[in-house]
Write the structure tokens for this entry.
Amino acid sequence: MNIVQILLEEIIGFFGVEGLIKVFQSGDYSSLLTLNGIQTVLSPVIPLILILEIIRALLHRRFKVGEYKLTFLTHVFNRFVSRFVTIAAVAFCIGIFEPWAVFKSTFTWYWLIYGYIVWEFAHYIYHYLAHKVRLFWCLHSTHHAPENMNLSVTYAHFFLEAPYADVIRTSICILAGVNPPLLFFIMFVDGTWGAFIHVGENIVKDGRIGFLNHIILTPSHHRVHHARNPLYMDTNFCNLLNIWDRAFGTFQPEEEQVVIEYGITRPMNRGSFLDMYFGEIAALWRDVKNGPGLKNKMLYLVMPPGWSHTGEHKTAKLIRSEFRKRNLNP
Ligand SMILES: [Zn+2]
Ligand SMILES: [Zn+2]
């Protein structure tokens, strides 16, 4: 395969238009009215909005290469490294856990509601652990490193994060009886919305999107999740339905007077792909190496980021509660 062909395939893959091309070639447009057809039409939406976002920034002379460079590099890196790992992990979990499912559901609207609530719960568990277990934070921090919000952040992930997330989410859903085709449909809806909530202020300035802010998780809520402000840290773990954030007390709306600062609290080497991708692993390695005794070394792996063997913890939970105490009793 020559380089032009590879590039063309990458571009088609990125825009998710393989399905549409097949439909145009076959001339059978009736398939667009099926569930698969709807997915085919929706797949290119997020990449297209991303391109629109970049064009708008260019037109307003606000385009900064730095805001997109690292997320783009991460996407390219992942395309080559983790292309099939996730698919294999999902298939493996379905095979293992389906016989143990508590019951079997079918592809109907009421099971869709059930399935979505279970999926959102499973997503909450994965995402909560990704923030609260230092080893998992190493995988997730790449997604939180960007200091601007735009749709390219959707593509910024450590290559092992997707398999880890999907092993947890798939296993819980399958054990809870969610039927696999229903699960794939939910994954698609979740993936599309999960990408859209990274839309930048360039395209959607007020991320609350009107009344939607009261019923589902909007870009505004996810901007809060990506913020390093003490009030916002480790909140809004859900993706579309924020029921579990509300149930578990991690729901935090965007406050007018607390302007979002994106990124992570560790001082970073700005513009470095290596620091964005491996920085947290290096920091964890240093702490494990310097931690006295085997117990402390192990604790560094499983305790939340900011935990210290000296007792001088700087976890998000402590920082947030100190901030709230100060601001409630000035
Ligand atoms: Zn997160
Ligand atoms: Zn995100």
In short: The chain has 16 helices and no strands.
